[in-house]
Amino acid sequence: MDNGSIAGLPGTLAALGRALEGKSLSPVEVVRGLLDRIEERGGELNAFVTVTAEGALESAKRAEGEILAGRYRGPLHGAPVGVKDMILTRGVRTTMGSAFFEDHVPREDAAVVERLREAGSVVAGKTSTHEFAYGTTGDRSRFGPTRNPHDPARITGGSSSGSGAAVAAGLLYGSLGTDTGGSIRIPAALCGVAGMKPTFGRVSKRGVFPLAWTLDHVGPLTRTVEDNALLLNALAGHDPEDPYSAARQAEDFTRDLDRGIRGGVVGIPAGFYYERLESEVGARVAEAAEVFRSLGAGVREVEVPLLQEALDAQRLVLAAEAYAVHEERFLGEPEKFDEEVRERIRAGAEPRAYEYANARRTRLRSLRAFARVFEEVDALLAPTVPIAATEVAQREVIIGGEAVPVRAELNRLTGPTNLNGLPSLSVPCGLTAAGLPVGIQLIGRPFDEATLYRYGHAFERASS
Amino acid sequence: MDNGSIAGLPGTLAALGRALEGKSLSPVEVVRGLLDRIEERGGELNAFVTVTAEGALESAKRAEGEILAGRYRGPLHGAPVGVKDMILTRGVRTTMGSAFFEDHVPREDAAVVERLREAGSVVAGKTSTHEFAYGTTGDRSRFGPTRNPHDPARITGGSSSGSGAAVAAGLLYGSLGTDTGGSIRIPAALCGVAGMKPTFGRVSKRGVFPLAWTLDHVGPLTRTVEDNALLLNALAGHDPEDPYSAARQAEDFTRDLDRGIRGGVVGIPAGFYYERLESEVGARVAEAAEVFRSLGAGVREVEVPLLQEALDAQRLVLAAEAYAVHEERFLGEPEKFDEEVRERIRAGAEPRAYEYANARRTRLRSLRAFARVFEEVDALLAPTVPIAATEVAQREVIIGGEAVPVRAELNRLTGPTNLNGLPSLSVPCGLTAAGLPVGIQLIGRPFDEATLYRYGHAFERASS
User: Fold this and answer.
1) pLDDT surpasses 50 at A1
2) Which residues of chain B make contact with A213, given a CB cutoff of 8 A?
3) Structure pTM?
4) Which homologous superfamily is A5-235 in?
């Protein structure tokens, strides 16, 4: 898990980019090196549904030719990345982790895949997903459970399970995930990588299979915060063909990385985010707060109201929209769903329209509540997930003597920002005694991902 | 119903403004004149819940003083207007037409009332509303049915029933209404006045009692199109305290009124909007199309898809949000509701969350469908209401040999633009043989009210 190198290759996307730009390394060597590692560990982790070795080598050769010809496109040029198998790839099977789509070969790339290709990056494969992205554990899929590189008996968290595992294991320099209740940040935290759920509307969802369209976000998982900002640079941007896409200008998310955080203010949202944590998670997050203090930031307790209401609303909206997405399949061929996923879809038909309407109002109230807090702080610091990775197929976990369902526990702290759409970055903050990663999440103002990257980068530098 | 004069006073807000600015008339004389007329006809029509004679005279005196002192504020200064009794007025009883609020005296003005007062206009009273604005007929309220000045045995249409009746009868120069499924445009059409439902977000709803918050709009009813633009000038503008308020600059909606429409294109959305019309309504609307042609505009049939879907979605969203608004009252004191309104509220608990979620998607699809049509036309021309005013308490109407419910018929053609939020202006287009008004609605691009006013004004000039 050393970011210094990956099997003799540079350990980060940023370092890789410098080596490729300087021609001290060829994209073809890089792809060959990673394909060997995928061959070695990919099976055990079950991180990939499809490895696109041939296409990746072809892209790498093209990138090599362009770089040699002096047409270097930027830091992603020639860099191997993965794409969650909920995101459509032209000519490459895209399964949603489901029997319904096991032979599905899209004719178009999703907008984010187009953007990756324009940046010159090399798509090395389709990473595993919880079936239809409808689960936080990552252990239910037509293609079996994904396993945690830190302990293959344990889950990666989901639903972007393969992206988390592959990046953590050094099989990829970065990977795209989707996040409807925490599905980027949960595997990032449990696998020990950086994961960004950008602001709702920041990244186009055209060509991404929906789970719940008013909560779905697309974003990157990477080995470092800087790498994450580099990937988001490529992904972000207005897409008139996505009705949820925000009309925002492109920006450089790496611009402030080295500015430091001295004089800034980190808010500790006591209560909701700090209740019912595994003790080692609580300890790692408390240590993280001290790191921010040591970097010259003020660290101050704040009260963020309406969090439980926001979580309840997020869950209701998710259930309802997922039912709407899957109704036809559910009524037509229910047996083709995983049984846990099927039961969740079935339950999504129950809530009433007026409850959904109220949940939408809660979204606005939650946005206003956060806005007031952000008048006083630059970022909020909270645990990403209250527990470390549980075992594959484990469905209950004991926290403080209380047995709670793993699935709901995993996204309890990430769900509220899916409802209100605020950006949230998960960054590793150390390990438990058993060697399992813990993550902090930094939550920011709408469209202020740059500040989260700045805080995350400063923290990562200071704590690694 | 002559716009030339109101009991010896100027017949329009525009003409009144000129007289007041020129000091040939005093605001106090105007208010006294209108209060006399209200005294005379207000009772029969039941257009007012509350007449604020004292406050109006006070405001008029203040306006008089300001004008004499050379501090003329603009065309609304000293002009008497009404405010629908769903819109809060500080210190003035605001009842929502309901027993729940019969003694309710708000401590704050709604944003639109603040804006009227800033413009110097004189609030002469609170106009009748269908109970909680939850009805298209205007004949169900704690305070009894409102009656049509063209035939007091007939309805005004609703829910802004009192605003329609008072403006049509020359008791006010203009009045504020609210519109969730047609509640400004329906009484405008049935009473023979101009009524604008502006673009969703154009006018603040702060301090307006909700019926269904994602469909609710506030707008003016007036005697002429020009008057309507003058009132919207005062009402429109961003309000950071209304989460649905759009961040738009102020503009002058009268700026293009006299530019004419030669070379423009009017679309006739065949199908949905032209099915099942009373024959006289169809005839008046066909004549209106000829007027537009005679003014030099192209008139062209166009196809607007998804209209029935949009109407169904609007009705589902309305039912669900109205239930959410009234749940506590409904469960606590159901007997205080009018029985028809109670039954509608009860039914609003039924629809499912996934249906509401789908309705929200239909909203986006409908917006895109209209956007494509507006690539080819400047405005759409349709009947506002498929029938003329029915009798008070009548619940079925025969159209083309088919008996249909009056309530649903009245808002069948106005509902789709409440879902998608497009601006729609109703303008009188003549009378039936029985002397009942018929209205056309002009539908435009988002935030392009100015074009609707230009077309409406040209039409009004040519047809009066």
Assistant:
1) no
2) 361
3) 0.95
4) Amidase signature (AS) domain (3.90.1300.10)
